[in-house]
Structures are given as structure tokens and as C-alpha cells.
Amino acid sequence: MLKHQMKFALMSPLRTTALFLLSLSLSSPASSQPLWEPVSYGLDDSRLHLVAVDPQVPRTLYAASLRAVYRSDDGGRHWSQRFRTSGHAEVMFLAVDPFDGPHALVATTRGLYATADDGRHWLRAFRGGTSEEARCHVVFFHPFRRGEVWLGTAGGGFVSRDGGRSWQSAGPELSRRSIRYLAIDPTPPHRLYVLTDHEVFAGGTDEATWQSLFSLAATPQPLEEAAEQADEAVVDETASADQLTALAVDPALKDGVSPSSPTTLYLSSLNGAYTSADGGVTWQPLTQLGLGTASIRHLILHHHSPTVLYAATPNGVARLLPEEQRWEALYAGLPTKAARFLAATDSRLFAATDQGLYMLDLTMEQLAQGNWPGAKALLGDFVHEPSIGAVQENAIHYAEVQPEKIAAWRKQARMSALIPKFTVTGDTNLTDFRHWDSGANPDALQKGERDIDWSTNVTWELGDFIYSDDQTNIDVRSKLMVELRDSILDDVTRSYFERRRLQVELITDPPTEPKAQLAKELRIQELTAILDGLTGGWFSSEIERNGRR
Q: Is the pTM here over 0.85, yes or no?
């Protein structure tokens, strides 16, 4: 019975979170880790090393191999190639404009390319004055300033304040340096962090000078500490021992508004990781226990319920457990260890690997560890579904009871006064009219034409401009329409939120009995059918269009 129930639940992708929690209560702790799901079916190249999410439309994904960039508009169900390099050029980085989704930039070893139409057409936005400057390593849109773009190359840093049309040097401190990564503090004044091969610089985006915060040459490597903690943490012999790879910024927000303590920084390299709890003044080696390698290719912070640090390594994806001073590998469902890059939305983590793109449901991952998300984060798991306002609007238009229709009736009734009433009347006299020919034959009696009378009449009812009899009929019809609209809105609102309450209950308090689980699943399907009936099938089709895996 349970086996069949679980198969039924899997038929609906909206129930996966609830099913996951139900399985937790029926399985051993070892099997409670959430599963990675493949989201790169149909891609021509499975060896991916980059992934990006459109900040405005989280279901829009970009993934890149060394030779091409791909785009998905439905969360990874379908992909299309949008960019391919020529010659021996390689894709190094990609970024999506947070203010203008169709605008994206791709950094390659032979310049920077830009698109303004979702990747259908591309133009070279930066060539560089030297071969080093042409080798673009990283590109970064300022998340709080429209049109501001930062570019890191093998020959220095550059900034554009017009969306990439013109460029200038980012400062003498960064000139002729190989810049590998860019990050920003999300709290004002939005300090920018720049990673070169060996150093970390920080400065305001309006400042002309940069401050060095970290140098690999002046910082002890964390390898000895890792070796003492676990023999499994070994150096990646194929990697450079002194190259920085990524930096993550934790602003330590208080109530999500203002900083309550100095910014915490996490820094990774191909041979270790470091952390600073005072905004980069002092640094400490970050534990490697549980990683199985010293090499971290990329790391990101997920700032939701609670803040978690994730790392991509040659051994897969891992999550930092700060209280236990160790990393936990997230391997379930991931067929490869070679994770190269990470990206996240409010509720999903994406990993680019040498065997494709994979997605981890972070809500499920948090619940598996007992980290219950807040209400906002929990409801964020349903962002792929239409809002109540959108459902109400579509139901009103489907039933043709929108307020604009009544206004149109009244306007048409007033304008009818401009249309005249046009009448034509005619009359024929059947009496024969005869007369003597007054011409050459005066003795002949002639029969004349019949007498035909006709007239036309045009009238305007100008009083209808003020009030007409039609207004009375409109008042009656509008009253009935308002009552019908209120009834539809009431049905939509009750069905929508009853359905949402059941969805949340399946996540926060999943039934342990299969029969109770089935009853809730059926009720959700019934409410979905009601909403489809009220919107002409739009509700389910919109969920399908948004795409969710």
C-alpha cells in the first residue's frame, strides 16, 4: 500500500517536498539526505563548468561549457544553445543583468561578448588593448547600480557605467594583474572585493584606490591543520598551490536590514580556504575536515533559513557545519565528484559538473537537517505557482465580468447619442394621369407618369449624452455582474488558500498514514481542478510553463 502511495505522489512534482518528509519518517537516518536531480537533459555538452540564474526570473538558467552557452526558460527541462565560441576561444564566465534580464555578458579568452535579446544576437563588447586584456576571466553586474559592470582580465580590471558600451581602467592597483573573481557586500556602501591570482583587494566602487586585504604569500597554508584533522584531506596535486578561486560575503544582517557585526568573508583557493570575521582585517584557515581535498573551485553563501556555505570541489559539493567545524558532503543523486561551479535561488542550489547540471531542493535539504525555514522561505517554495492576484484576474477575464466591461457599456450608451436615426419614406399615387399631346399630334391622348412621393428624416437624441433609457438596463446588468464577480472571486480565494494550506501542511506536518496522505493529495488535485475550471485551464498551464523540477 505504501509503495503504491509513494508512486502516486511522485506523479505530481508539486508534492515532492511533502513526499520527501514522509519518507524521512519511514527511513533510516543514513538515507535521509536530499537527492540531486539532473536538469540538463538535451544539452549537447555535458562537461559544464559554469551556471547562472536570472535574478529577475529564477526559472531562467544559463549553463556553459568551454565552447558554448546554453539557456533554459523552464527551470532546466529544455535547453537551447545561445552562444558558441570560434577558433580556440573558451568561455570563462557569464553574468546576467539583474535589471535587464535579456542583457547578458559572456567572458571568453578572446574578449567579452554581450547580448540584449536573450542570446539571439551577440556583439563583442570588449577587445582589450593587449592579449592579456583580451583574456577575460570574470564579469560582474553591480546588483544595486543599473548599467555598472566590472570586468576582470589577465591584464587588469575594467569598469563600465553604461552597460558595457565603454570601459575604463579600475585603478592602477589592479592594472596588469590577473583578476580571477569579483564579489560585493550587499550592505551599503557595497564594498567590492577583487581576487587576483594571489591577493584580495577591497574598495568602494566609486573609489580610485584599492586596499590589499589578503595575500597567499603572507598567509600560512591551511594544509597542516587539515592533515591533523583528517588524513582524507589531501592536496590536489593537479592544481596550482597558490591561486585564489572565489570569495563569499556574509554581511551578518540584523533583522535583514542593518549590519549587526563586521562582515564575515570566506575565501577559497586551489589549495585551501580561509575566513575572516572582521571584514578582512585578520584571516584564519578554514577547516578541511570532511572535504577530502584541499582544492575548492567555487563557494557561495545561501542567505536563507539559515545562512549556509556551500563549496564545489573535485570531490563533489559540500556544506559547512560551523558548529561541528567540519564539512558534510552532499552526494546523494550526484553521479560525479567533479563539481565546478555553484549558483542558487531562494530554494534551489545548482551545481555545474563534468556530467551535466544538477539541482538540489534547499527546502528539503534544510528540513532533512532539522533547520526549519521561516514562513517567507517556506512559501518561497511555491514561487513557480501563480499569485492569488494573477489567478483572480484571469478568472474575472475568463468569465467576462471585468469592471472595464461595465464602463465600456456606459460609454457606448452615451456615444449612441452621436449616431442619428435615419428614416426613408415613400408613397405612390395609383391614379392614372392623362393629357393631350401638346406636340406634333395634338389629337393623341397621352398617359403620364404615376405620382411618387418620398422623403428622408435624420434625428439625434442629444439628451442621451446625459442620460438614456439604456443606462437603466446597464444598471441592472452591472448589479448582476458585480454579484457574479464577487462570487467568482470568493470561490477563487477560498480554493487558492485552502490548496496552499494543504501544501504547507504536507511539508510541515506530513501524515504518517498513507490513507491520510492520499486524502490530502486528492483534495489538492480537486482544488487545482476547481481553479482550472474558473480560469479555463490557465492555472495548471501557468504552473507547467513556469517549470519546476
A: no
